[in-house]
Amino acid sequence: GAVVSQHPSRVICKSGTSVKIECRSLDFQATTMFWYRQFPKKSLMLMATSNEGSKATYEQGVEKDKFLINHASLTLSTLTVTSAHPEDSSFYICSASPLSQTDTQYFGPGTRLTVL
Amino acid sequence: DAKTTQPTSMDCAEGRAANLPCNHSTISGNEYVYWYRQIHSQGPQYIIHGLKNNETNEMASLIITEDRKSSTLILPHATLRDTAVYYCIPNSGGSNYKLTFGKGTLLTVNP
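The joint structure predicted for all components is written out below.
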């Protein structure tokens, strides 16, 4: 149980385009989902906390207009990187906390974004 | 959140127990100790967490000192697939809690 999926697993795009990444909790409902970013050889950094049906809370230094988060249901959150640039190339990872187990986060497999 | 100190890296022979230490001397009374691991190019995986008492599950055991200033994660019979970066994260848990990942310990299990 407690499986989180992400799609796509890898994406390559041209500079200036937008990319949408989906995060789904497959076998549980999640009120809260989290989005992290990880640069090479660095640790995960939290970008934003997303609650179903409400606006996401962004961490300091993360541009909310660039990284659009939508959490429309208890099993799906999306992250859209708008007008992507090479410096946005990174490993994007989501996590979700089950309603029945809010003290534990389960992570997706990650999405590798490369912006040319 | 409390700060943590973990060894940068450790080695372990396959089949042996891997003992990963973590110092968290500034941990608050309401903070649990969470352990996650990240295999290369994958998302982190939850391992175990505890507050005061020692905990055990199918993956590992967690030993927390009585003063709660340090803990040890034990993988009883390490396999090659246990090679990963292990993170010790004190956190109060609950909804909307944020995990702060440090540098962790790179555990390499050798054949």
